Amino acid sequence: MKNIVWMIFFCLCLVSITSCKSKEVETFERLLGMWEIDTIEYQNENYKDSLYLNTLYFEFKNNLSSLTLPKTTEFKREIAVWDVYNNIDNSVVLEIESLNHFFKGIYTIQFFKNKERKLLGVELKSSKMVIVGYKFDED
Fold first, then answer.
1. What is the CATH number of the domain that holds 64?
2. DSSP structural state of residue 53
3. What residues form DSSP beta bridges with 22?
4. Which of 13, 25, 44, 104: disulfide with 21, CB 3.0–4.6 Å?
5. Cα end-to-end distance, the chain, whole Å
6. What is the pLDDT of residue 42?
7. What pLDDT shows up at residue 90?
8. Minimal CA–CA distance to 125: which of 68, 73, 87, 81?
């Protein structure tokens, strides 16, 4: 009887460990896809009028995470590199590596549900940029 209890306990532990995704992986997977930029500010100034197209496209192909940044009045459309990782305070952050200094940086990530629009939203904040966007429906 004691062996059966230990076996059940071991199996439950194994299932819980293997089925849990890390916060980093969950955040990475939620970011994947096309996002409509609703609000964007650079150094506390509205930057939306500088965008030719108000979308961000997060991809992961061939072990490379790429982010399509929109063309702006200052920069051509660019494919940047991005990743998420645990910050010192154990929060998950997004890092964008880009030649476009407006988008380059480390961002805090806050997901939210917009009940009115029935869409997943995200707020990305760096030291100089704030982006609020909604994920295109994938259905």
1. 2.40.128
2. S
3. none
4. 25
5. 49
6. 96
7. 87
8. 87
